[in-house]
Amino acid sequence: MPSQSRRRAITPILFSAPFREASCTMSVSCGPLGTSLTQEILSSLGLADKTTAWGTLGTLRTFLSFSADKDVQRLLKAIAGQGVDYDTIVDVLTNRSREQRQLISRAFQERTKQDLLKSLQAALSGNLEKIVVALLQPAAQFDAQELRTALKTSGSAEDVALEILATRAAPRLQACLAVYKHDFQVEAEEDIRTETNGILQDLLLALSKGDRESYSGIIDYNLEEQDVQALQQAGESGTAGQWVLLLTQRSPEHLIRVFDQYRRCTGQELEDAIRNCFHGDAQLALISLASMLRNTALYFANKLHQALQETEPNFQVLMRVLISRSESDLLSIRAEFKKKFGKSLYSSLQDAVRGDCRSALLALCRAEDI
């Protein structure tokens, strides 16, 4: 890393007390049902398709006073001086939506005839460089690269690949798979067949088709009862097909009710039934998927906490989760983190992470939860 020239310290954005209370209230109901209610409200306001609009659960929103030309000037000044101004680079890129960052890249190209990403890569190194690359990439390209790495790395498919295929909205998932085919000259489905096997392969293939039912807002109690009975019978017979079908096809909102009804009918949580029926990689994959569907925000809170507990914080996990969830539900994840672990995600990052990437991760997290 070149010598640093710190021109301005980045300070965390502390929300006012009313906003903190509002964000915590929204974030507690962070499962799919809470998200649906949020989307319902936003829809009535004409904001349902604005994922970075005020009132959503992301920490990073569209910068209202945005000027691509001014941001280009700031970035040029940050990398053209005697010392690289890391703080300015982080400040600009972590305070703009992904769409706005793409506009900055185009404006930079038009003004300088150079590629912004390559220019920043030449000025940076290490984990900060990786964050900047991830921030400047289109979301689909970022997901495609993470998915490819997961499938080609031993032990990552049941974790990262499952996470990407199960938690991305249908349009983003389809874009990811299209970029995957374009960049790597192979269908993701083909790599899944080559690199995985068993129930994990069945889950990944089913999820990659993007056929999960969308939530209609109507509760189908008959279907709920049928699904509970189907899972009970599948558990008794030890067959995985019905588990794979339901967990990859039904909407998360419906499945949460199925999980609750299953507990009332059998006296045990669905995850406990999985532990009794399956072992090894199959068990891990099914429990991971069930956890994502039951409470997505809690799943990611657990993932971040685990990454921070390692001897050296798992930077790749921290980067992927904070960037990929920053414009959708990171406030919910922060609330679940504080609720379960008794300490805010912001403070945990402050205490565990060192180096130049620290300020960028803190900026994505955004603020302390009191």
Automatic annotation (TrEMBL):
SMART domains: ANX (SM00335). It comes from the Eukaryota. InterPro entries: Annexin, Annexin_repeat, Annexin_repeat_CS, Annexin_sf, ANX9. It holds the Pfam family Annexin. GO terms for cellular component: cytoplasm; nucleus; plasma membrane; vesicle membrane. One of its GO terms (molecular function) is calcium ion binding. Keywords: Annexin, Calcium, Calcium/phospholipid-binding, Receptor, Repeat. Homodimer. PANTHER family: ANNEXIN, ANNEXIN A9. Belongs to the annexin family. A pair of annexin repeats may form one binding site for calcium and phospholipid. This is Annexin. The lineage of its organism: Eukaryota, Metazoa, Chordata, Craniata, Vertebrata. The gene is Anxa9.
